[in-house]
Amino acid sequence: MQNDISKMMAEIGANARAASVVLATAEANAKRRALEVAADTVWETRDAIIAANKKDMAFAAEKGLSPAMLDRLMLDEPRVQSMVDGLRAVAAQDDPIGEVIDAWDQPSGLHIERVRTPIGVIGVIYESRPNVTADAGALCLKSGNAVILRGGSEGLHSALAIHAAMITGLRSAGLPEAAIQLVPTRDRAAVSEMLQAVEHIDVIVPRGGKGLVGLVQKEARVPVFAHLEGICHVYVDGSADVAMARDVLLNAKTRRTGICGSAETVLIDTAFHEKHRDALIPALIEAGVEVRAEPGLQMDGTVMASADDFGREFLDMIIAAKTVDGIAGAIAHIRQFGSDHTDAIITEDDAIAARFFRELDSAILMRNASTQFADGGEFGMGAEIGIATGKLHARGPVGAVQLTSFQYHVTGNGTVRS
Q1: Which of 33, 106, 233, 290 has the smallest CB count inside 10 Å?
Q2: Model confidence over 285-317: pLDDT tens digits?
Q3: Strand 263-269 vs strand 232-236: parallel, antiparallel, or unpaired?
Q4: Given this model, what pLDDT does residue 1 score?
Q5: Other residues' Cβ atoms within 10 Å of the Cβ of residue 353
Q6: Alpha-carbon separation of residue 121 from 24, 80, 188, 403 (angstroms)
Q7: 98: exposed, middle or buried (C-beta count within 10 Å: 0-12, 13-18, 19+)?
Q8: Residue range 2-225+398-411 in CATH 3.40.605.10
Q9: Residue 76 region, left (φ>0) first, then alpha (ψ -120 to 50), else beta?
Q10: How far lies 395's CA from each of 261, 275, 295, 313, 362, in Å?
């Protein structure tokens, strides 16, 4: 069985490498057409996609997946529409390949240009969310990369149905079908093969929980764009507008609890809490959130926080709550417990906001806005392949541009070096 998986993955890898050569010089209009037709096909086949998703939901429920993971997996017509909108948005973007990023002349007479190029072959390993099949396929195609997709076992039927629509798009544009390949097995050995496939895959993008990302980082020989868990904080400063703080915090926690941009900890400046004791915690409780609060925030309806509630990704209607001594206390807490994903400050003080932005190192920092905006679509990227929390190459939402590299084009006129 292992030999069969190895053979299958080697074939997928070789086909992806061959497709990447074609995609590197593919016309922008061909890539745009492929994505537009894929979007139309996803919508036209939405009933089949949703029916496939129901099979996955039944399988996932039988496996005992958490409500948050089931929410990530679930597709309905509005979510299919969002997928379609993402495909169309990526299709409409300017093609990044061939863009001259910078250009200059040297005293030697050389003219030098830095030009955007594809990376080659991207491997995407993801859990639950079937929309990643469309998002990752679209972004890799737009950036001239072939992609090998390995979704979670719980979402296989949904992924296959969406992938079929992507293939229809590729065929319509005369692009190689191997440009977007989906690993058609639940066997975990396929993941191990991808992590070792240095001859076929240029970079791995893991999108999922801490366990998946940790496994990939530990075992991969292929370079990895890290996408760690979203331990997102909302810090409410002493100068915060009360109504704004309440609205932003509630949205950050409750809009969708199962996404990586959901707030997991609220830090409240002691000065704010002393003036507005009933402004935030009761509103969270009323909204159905379980508030795990440290002693300074205990009140009717809260639960006593334990030490491991801070620095924890709940992905549920649960939030940890703590008072801090101003901006210094908030920064110290986030540095200790954050995951470098997304952190927000609610403040009317420009100097405090500037310090928050300057002294924290998260991939995304926000002021007076919900952490739920930590999303490539909301950043104007059409879609995202993930939120990269590392510091090399890509950081924050990874869109088409972030899936490119560059090369230098140097032009002389018989120029020789003395």
Answers
A1: 106
A2: 999 999 999 998 999 999 999 999 999 999 899
A3: parallel
A4: 56
A5: 20
A6: 11, 27, 20, 10
A7: exposed
A8: yes
A9: beta
A10: 15, 38, 36, 20, 9
Nearest to 313 by CA among 394, 209, 215: 209
Q: What is the pTM (predicted TM-score) of this model?
A: 0.84
Return d(Cα 283, Cα 288) in angstroms, integer.
9
Residues 6+ apart with CB under 8 A from 363: 340, 341, 342, 387, 388, 389, 395, 396
Cβ atoms 129, 83 nearer than 8 A: no
Q: What CATH topology corresponds to 232-373?
A: Aldehyde Dehydrogenase; Chain A, domain 2 (3.40.309)
Cα 277 from Cα 298, distance rounded (Å)? 11
* Cα 12 from Cα 59, distance rounded (Å): 27
User: Which residues of the chain are modeled with pLDDT < 50?
Assistant: none
- Look at residue 218 in the predicted model and tell me its pLDDT: 86
Q: What is the pLDDT of residue 143?
A: 97
The 3-state secondary structure of the chain reads CHHHHHHHHHHHHHHHHHHHHHHCCCCHHHHHHHHHHHHHHHHHCHHHHHHHHHHHHHHHHHHCCCHHHHHHHCCCHHHHHHHHHHHHHHHHCCCCCCCEEEEEECCCCCEEEEEEEECCEEEEEECCCCHHHHHHHHHHHHCCCEEEEECCHHHHHHHHHHHHHHHHHHHHCCCCHHHEEECCCCCCHHHHHHHHCCCCCCEEEEECCHHHHHHHHHHCCCCECCCCCCCEEEEECCCCCHHHHHHHHHHHHHCCCCCCCCEEEEEEEHHHHHHCCCCCHHHHHHCCCEEEECHHHCCCCCEECCHHHCCCCCCCCEEEEEEECHHHHHHHHHHHHCCCCEEEEECCCHHHHHHHHHHCCCCEEEECCCHHHCCCCCCCCCCCCCEECCCCCCCEECCCHHHEEEEEEEECCCCCCC
Residues 392, 360, 210, 260: what is their CA dihedral angle, to the nearest 10 degrees?
-100
